[in-house]
Write a structure and sequence with these properties.
By secondary structure, this protein is mainly β. The protein has one domain (36-303): Jelly Rolls. The chain has 1 helix and 17 strands. The protein has one helix at 2-18; strands at 53-57, 74-75, 81-84, 96-101, 108-120, 122-131, 140-141, 145-149, 164-171, 181-187, 197-199, 205-206, 233-240, 249-255, 258-266, 276-285, 293-303. The longest helix is centred in the N-terminal third of the chain and has 17 residues, at 2-18. The protein is globular, with a radius of gyration of 21 Å.
């Protein structure tokens, strides 16, 4: 009873300071490994038919990038988007999506966007992704999955009622090898600058890394991660929008089914009118004087629950027509 009173008092104290309620107890653990939607669909076959799947694309149905508009809402730089068929440029099947940033001294953003037909409070996106072996870009960010609500443009802070934006990307804001540490770039009402904050798995937040992230008492720091170039990974991003007035928002990142980051205590919005309505796959570079930069995507799934890596074996069905013999 005494412990309960202390927790309640602490929660009330934080509410007075921040204006929103915090977690009173540890949130539910997140699933990992092959314990998601994909486990039911060998090599993602027919995964789009799952009732929790909002969208899926393996890029096998396209003859050219111009045909992407049949499923995707927007293509940023069609001249730099390609359906790749060469070995190593797709994960499964015979085709993958290739995004390119050409050699140039000005910034360029490339992406494909999918507007969701049904907006949601919680969305998971899993995609297989691979950086080119020659990938080298110190100004490369925003090069992964984006989940957003009413996002308009960079440099406009989120205020709780206009928008929020969350991605998983690899960037070299911290000193690192290419392609940089995996992190989440976030526009939210408590961001530290006019541009979004970078959340790293160990709890570091940029800019102003000397100030700890406000992830609550149940946050678990995890090692920062740099993927290898020229290797396919399953990246999965979850965004759970908070209940307005509470700090129960959550952002999580999985690599090959391993939970590498779990950011708790997040305030993304102050009104339920802000719901997740867009997903994109992107590749942005501030300037790229060294040469063409390539990244590939394949087997994207958007859902309302954990997806997990592609399954290579069918899940075992429970036995049927059993007869009990009682002695």
């Amino acid at each position: 009873m005494k412990t309960t009173r202390i927790v309640a008092f602490f929660s009330l104290f934080i509410t007075c300071l921040t204006g929103v309620a915090t977690y009173a107890q540890a949130p539910a653990p997140l699933p990992t490994g092959n314990h998601g939607i994909a486990a039911k669909y060998v090599q993602d076959a027919n995964i789009a038919s799952d009732p929790q799947v909002l969208f899926a694309d393996d890029f096998e149905s396209y003859g050219s990038a111009s045909q992407l508009s049949s499923k995707w809402s927007n293509i940023y730089q069609q001249q730099n988007v390609r359906i790749a068929t060469e070995s190593g440029k797709f994960f499964l099947g015979s085709k993958g999506l290739e995004l390119k940033v050409p050699r140039q001294t000005t910034e360029i953003a490339n992406a494909v966007e999918r507007t969701l037909s049904t907006s949601s409070d919680t969305v998971f996106v899993r995609v297989y992704t691979k950086f080119d072996s020659a990938y080298s870009a110190s100004g490369s960010e925003h090069n992964g999955i984006v989940i957003s609500s009413n996002y308009c443009c960079p440099g406009v802070p989120a205020n709780g009622s206009n928008k929020f934006y969350v991605d998983v990307e690899n960037s070299r804001d911290l000193s690192s090898n290419n392609p940089g540490f995996t992190n989440s770039y976030v526009y939210y009402p408590e961001q530290r600058d006019v541009y979004g904050d970078h959340f790293f798995p160990d709890g570091t937040v940029l800019p102003n890394s000397s100030t700890p992230g406000n992830f609550g008492s149940f946050f678990v720091p995890r090692p920062n991660f740099i993927p290898q170039l020229n290797r396919w990974y399953s990246y999965e991003l979850m965004v759970k929008a908070n209940t307005p007035g509470q700090r129960d928002g959550r952002i999580a990142i999985w690599i090959d089914g391993n939970l590498i980051a779990d950011f708790l205590n997040i305030r993304l919005r102050d009104t339920t009118s802000l719901k997740i309505n867009k997903v994109e796959l992107d590749l942005y570079i501030k300037n790229n004087p060294g040469g063409d930069v390539l990244k590939w995507y394949d087997n994207v799934v958007i859902a309302t629950s954990y997806i997990g890596p592609v399954s290579t074996t069918a899940a075992l069905a429970p036995p049927t027509n059993l007869t009990a013999i009682v002695h």
